Amino acid sequence: MHRSTIARHIIGFLTRSGADDRRTAAGERVPDAMCESLEPRMLLSSVAAFSPMNLGPAPAHPQPPSVIVQPVNPGRVPVSSIGQPGATQRAVWMWGAEMLDAVNNPVYRDGAIDFLEDKAITTVYLYAAEVFESGASQGNPLADQPAAYAALVSSLHDNGLEVYALLDSVDVGTTVKLVSDFQAVLDYNSQATVSGRFDGFNFDIEPWKDNQGWDANRAALSQDYLDMAAVMMQMKQAYEPSLVAGPAIAFWFDDYSITWNGSTRPMNEHVQSLFDYATIMDYRDTVLGDDGILFHAQNEIGFASQIGKPLVIGVETKADELDKLTFFEEGEAYMDQQLQTVAMGLQNNTAFAGFAIHDFAGYTELAGVTIPHTNTVVVLPDLKVKYPFDVDPDPPKPWWEAVLLRNQKVLITK
Asked: Rounded distance, CA 184 to CA 179, Å?
């Protein structure tokens, strides 16, 4: 069981609506919670007193519990579930800044995993190249800290998440940096332990950005895009054909046709034919209408069905986007309702492979969640009762209200 789940069970049994009326079973009022710093390894050190069959006073000297952590499965073979019958993703893009925090800060990593679990995320598109901020390099853990990077991938795997290497580029062509970045990812995967390997790949290739001359050179840049895609898929096939690779594509790729390798067809059809799957950047905040999610995805999902390849629908959550592009103004509940409507509309389409949410930073802000970088400990004095936390994870009448983050400790004192 994930440690955060254990922690939530404990808090569930220590939590009661009406924090101003916290009392023991004997009717004594419990003082307000106090916070102090303690080592995170001391998680749950005093909860052994909670017994499934005993609601009476805790023993004077409770013994610390044995916390079981699922071991890494040394025989795990990275195989993505995408494209499997009935399988759908709920993916999220995690870019450089958040990746660096998750690699270098165990508290942030654990909090991020908690968030991913709480939001039923199945797949993380995890950034896997050098990180730049304002033109300055912030590091490249995949190359410089491969053991630390693999530890993050392993932690995500241990908690039931698939991990795709995420790479990006505004440049296209067979000699651009994206190709060498992909080779570095393949080299990493060949050397990493099984639990630290990627399950697939996601490429954010957007040559229309950063003044690349897209309007004047769309045909040539599109051909360079397709040449590059073909080379990268050859690289993947030579390394491990079972690993899936796919790009994030603009929803307007179906608006223009391109001639490539003697075939003239809409750009989306070229791209979807080359890759194992595609994620359409269907960044709209409504489902229906001629500017809605379903309208913009109809040709891509239709072609995906025709060729038997999965299509993931991407949505936006970031605050700094136009209103109609993002769910930030409408909120998380509205977004979930809209995604449910999309899923219902596509439930009989075997090519529909779920959703990808852009991005981790935007999603946490949308949800009003701040991922912690340091530990905080909640101390509950004068607690003289116990409750069977392993019987009911959602008791009807919890007793105390407190906030507990992953890797924190609850001190049960007399």
From this structure: 9
Report the CATH number at residue 152: 3.20.20.80
- Could you tell me the two tokens for 170? 């505004």
Pair (60, 12) in one structural domain: yes
Instruction: Give me 162's structure tokens.
Output: 């698939």
In one letter, which amino acid is 336?
A: D
pLDDT digits (tens, 9 = 90+) for 319-368: 989 999 999 999 999 999 999 999 999 999 999 999 999 999 999 999 99
- Model confidence over 164-223: pLDDT tens digits? 999 999 999 999 999 999 999 999 999 999 999 999 999 999 999 976 789 999 999 999
The size of the chain, in residues, is 414
- Same domain? For 65 and 180 the reply is no
Number of structural domains in the chain:
2
Domain coverage including residue 361:
89-366
What's the pTM value of the predicted model, to 2 decimals? Answer: 0.74
In single-letter form, the type of residue at position 199 comes to: D
Nearest to 99 by CA among 40, 3, 164: 164
Residue 379 is assigned to a structural domain of this protein: no
Closest CA to 92 of 164, 31, 9, 24: 164
Q: Answer for the pair 192, 150: CB distance below 8 angstroms, yes or no.
A: yes
Q: How far apart are CA 61 and CA 38, in angstroms?
A: 20
Q: Are residues 120 and 29 in the same domain?
A: no
